[in-house]
Amino acid sequence: MDKLSVMQAFRRIVERGSFARAAEDLGVSPALLSREIKLLEESLGSSLLTRTTRAMSLTDAGRLYYDEASGILDAVASVETRIRDGAGAVRGHLKVNASSSFGQTVISPILPEFLEAHPDLRLSLSLDDRIVDMIEGGFDVSIRILPAMPDSSLIARKIGTMRQRIFAAPAYLDQAGTPERPQDIAGHRVIGFLLADHLTKWALQGPSGAIILDLDPAIRVGNSLVLRDLLISGHGIGTLPDFVSNEPEGRGELVRVLPEWELPAPEIFAVTASRLGMDAKVTVFLDHLRAAMEA
């Protein structure tokens, strides 16, 4: 292997935590990788990895080599990307991750036009309601909806704000009555979102300030689209993000409950692992996504 290839191999070994997984990614044998890393360590006169039968860790020298090699590899990738971008080409394999509800209601409708505009681009779209490991999954960008991005080595760029409001079907409200104040919700059948931080506590903001409701949802689901369908069917009261509620509200299938009250608005982030910015395929995808969200 040449020097850059060795750097790429070492970086992949560290990020994948395994010679076998890194070898599979790179299309070479684990024995070849092991030999190349041994030669690298001999040339440097220092051990880079500490290996046991159960685990692998970086030495101080290994951490230094990983950090510096990653910077060099990112710089080379950035130069190559800028050259390709200068030719006006958007190509390669774009791997996107998003939640199921956001992917199906926001991303899916824009894909036909986006792919027609970039015929040389390959696309993988993974939908998962739990936060995934971007390095492990090999994703270029992940769309995450959170009150704030936690500190991490990932790069987060805000691309929008989501509003979270309370909804019910007209038929349910006709039968159970319409809450007139936040405290009335506790007397209703509540449908909760299992993965939300407000499953049993709704921190509502309204004209008289903030109020926290302690709730015990009778129905709990792990997908916003399932929650939406249960609300439309008249099974109770629940909260929905605007990108899920807009269409059924427009059709009159759902109505706002306590319209002056809503949960805090989380942010929509585009998360990447690159330190040097997004490449062309990620940039054009996010531009397309932003335009659709603002329309």
Automatic annotation (TrEMBL):
InterPro entries: LysR-type_TF_proteobact-type, LysR_HTH_N, LysR_subst-bd, WH-like_DNA-bd_sf, WH_DNA-bd_sf. It comes from the Bacteria. The keyword DNA damage does not apply. Residues 1-59 form the HTH lysR-type domain. Keywords: DNA-binding, Transcription, Transcription regulation. SUPFAM superfamilies: Periplasmic binding protein-like II, Winged helix' DNA-binding domain. The keyword Transmembrane helix does not apply. Belongs to the LysR transcriptional regulatory family. This is LysR family transcriptional regulator. It comes from Rhodobacter flavimaris.
